[in-house]
């Protein structure tokens, strides 16, 4: 089991995660067109906190993750809430082919910094989006490694200009950033603040 599988049942108990998801949802909502037929994909959905916050904004949401424990907890929550337009999906876009469906919107929250191969994941997002579709990436600004601590194998957040270049090279345009939340944590050097940005882009 991955650490995410092991933490799935307790994941939503952290009020910071719920607050963060609500802040990101509010920022995403400001960019969405006024339509009732939008189909969305959340990649790296975990227990679905962000999609639950956005449930009234989409006709259908596919919630994808590669952690079975997270999806089991998500399925329990969907059943408990009686939601009919959510579809959980076990998926790793780096090692598996993408689903056949296309989407108007793709969004991720605190997922991209865990994925080393940015070229492949951004290419997969481009492939899955309909022309002129929206890509929303919420993640950490570049940090000193203290967020996860020693041994972490992913990205230590992102320099916004560098990430924008990767996204543009993957076939996106109209790339913008805004700070939507700040995570505060106690470290050996005292309290540290970790800004979370929302990047918005459109598929060419």
Radius of gyration: 16 Å
* Beta-strand proportion: 25-35%
Q: What count of domains describes the coordinates?
A: 1
CATH topology name: Rossmann fold
Shape: globular
Low-confidence stretches: none
Number of helices: 6
What's the CATH class label? Answer: Alpha Beta
Question: What is the SS-derived class?
Answer: alpha/beta
Describe what this molecule looks like in 3D.
The structure is a single chain. This protein has 204 residues and is an alpha/beta fold.
Describe the structure using short key phrases.
single chain; seven-stranded mixed sheet; alpha/beta; 6 helices; Rossmann fold; 204 residues
How would you summarize this macromolecular structure in one to three sentences?
This protein has 204 residues and is of the alpha/beta class.
Secondary structure topology:
Layout: H1 3-7, H2 15-29, E1 39-43, H3 49-53, E2 60-65, H4 68-81, E3 86-90, E4 103-109, H5 118-128, E5 129-140, H6 160-169, E6 172-187, E7 190-203
Parallel strand pairs: 1-2, 1-4, 2-3, 4-5
Antiparallel strand pairs: 5-7, 6-7
């Amino acid at each position: 089991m991955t650490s995410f599988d092991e933490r799935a049942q307790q994941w939503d108990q952290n009020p910071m995660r719920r607050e963060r998801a609500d802040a990101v949802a509010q920022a995403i909502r400001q960019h969405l067109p006024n339509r009732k037929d939008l189909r969305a994909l959340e990649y790296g959905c975990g227990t679905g906190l962000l999609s639950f916050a956005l449930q009234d904004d989409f006709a259908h949401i596919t919630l994808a993750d590669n952690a079975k424990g997270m999806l089991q907890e998500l399925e329990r929550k969907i059943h408990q809430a009686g939601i009919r337009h959510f579809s959980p999906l076990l998926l790793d876009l780096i090692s598996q082919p993408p689903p056949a469906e296309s989407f108007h919107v793709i969004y991720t929250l605190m997922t991209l910094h865990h994925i080393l191969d940015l070229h492949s994941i951004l290419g997969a997002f481009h492939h899955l989006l309909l022309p002129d579709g929206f890509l929303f990436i919420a993640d950490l600004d570049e940090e000193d490694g203290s967020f996860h601590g020693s041994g972490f194998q992913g990205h230590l957040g992102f320099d916004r200009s560098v990430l924008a270049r990767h996204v543009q090279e993957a076939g996106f345009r109209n790339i913008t950033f805004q700070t939507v939340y700040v995570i505060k944590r106690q470290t050996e050097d005292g309290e540290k603040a970790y800004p979370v940005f929302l990047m918005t882009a459109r598929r060419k």
